Amino acid sequence: MKSPMYHITLSEEIKRLCPAFQGVAVMAQVTNSAHNSELWREIDAFTRELRAGETAESIKQQPAIAATREAYKRCGKDPSRYRPSAEALRRRLMRGLELYQIDTLVDLINLVSLRTGYSIGGFDADKIQGDSLELGIGRAEEPFEGIGRGTLNIEGLPVYRDRAGGIGTPTSDNERTKMGLETRRILAIVNGYNGREGLAEAAGMIQELLRKYADSDGGTILYFE
Q1: What's in the keyword line of the UniProt record (predicted)?
Q2: Which residues contact 143 (CB under 8 A, 6 or more apart)?
Q3: Could you give the percent of the chain with pLDDT greater than 90?
């Protein structure tokens, strides 16, 4: 039986290059589903709100997105070539495209990311090897298969690693630990490159959506820095 919560630490590189970083994780028992109409009504409502009030330039200035872009620069990655996922999702909607419909767990994590600007890692906790994760910086030619992206060059990207290697970056998570209809335990990590402000609200939003749409009690929360 795995620990009910993972031990998450920061590498010395991350501490030096991203000193403001604060994180929060939510771990919960869940039941996934292929589609939830009520959740998609929330997604559609946010989409209308975003398109009415945002521009391509204002997206980059959203505090959590701007801080993640700055973290990429500090770690050695061009955020205009490898966009943080929250920015990429907002830009997709602003281009008039619809959000990808994957499954309820992925869709609700995407909604929280869209609402808050945080790039959020969503993992099947039972696919993570070991009971600890470390946030470091990707190395040259480090193997990483992005979800739906094939081999991803993670050199210079912040990356969470388990015992077997990288599982998540703010641009893409890894196929190895992705969530699916079989997922029964979720680990969701919110990355606060601009500090702790807003993390509690994001974690609470994840818990609320898990209660509403994934037959969960909301799970437990872990702050780390």
Answers
A1: Aminoacyl-tRNA synthetase, Ligase
A2: 151, 165, 166
A3: 96
Closest CA to 3 of 167, 187, 158, 139: 187
Amino acid identity, position 36: N
Where is 7: in which H helix or E strand?
strand 7-10
Following DSSP, what letter does each residue of 86-124 receive, concatenated?
HHHHHHHHHTTPPPP---HHHHHHHHHHHHH---EEEEE
Mean pLDDT score, 20-37: 98
Hey, which CATH number is domain 7-224, 3.30.9.10, 3.50.40.10, 2.60.120.330, 1.10.10.10?
Answer: 3.50.40.10
Nearest to 198 by CA among 98, 63, 79: 63
CA distances from 22 to 111, 117, 213, 223 (A): 21, 15, 27, 8
Residue 5: what pLDDT? 74
Copy the structure tokens of residue 191: 């990355």
**E strands present in 163-212:** 165-168, 185-192
CA distance 162 to 168: 10
Residue located via tokens 């009415």: 52
Please give the torsion angle defined by the CA atoms of residues 167, 183, 112 and 169, in that order, rounded to the nearest 10 degrees: 10
